[in-house]
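To: structure desk
From: M.T.
Subject: fold request, one chain
Message: Could you run this one when you get a chance? Sequence is below, nothing fancy, just the single chain.
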Amino acid sequence: MKVELYTVDYCPYCKKALQFLDEKKVEYINHDITQNEDEMRAKLGIKYDIKGDVTVPQIIINDKRIGGYTDMMALYENGELNFS
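Reply: Done. Structure tokens follow.
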């Protein structure tokens, strides 16, 4: 499973997502966009066809954007996302 996150260093939901993945021992790539935040949010919006504000974290699993932390947790709790 390929997991990527786009985060900023001051975001509590980014920290929760990273902590959850660490607890589940999931390997992931974290792209910290704090330094180029506005530019990277715009690029993510274009790349993933996001309408409106681009929030963080943006979580990508197997090249498919699943959304943010609450989206990931909903998928996990519904059994649609299995990290074992």
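Reply (cont.): The longest strand covers residues 3-7. Let me know if you need anything else for the meeting.
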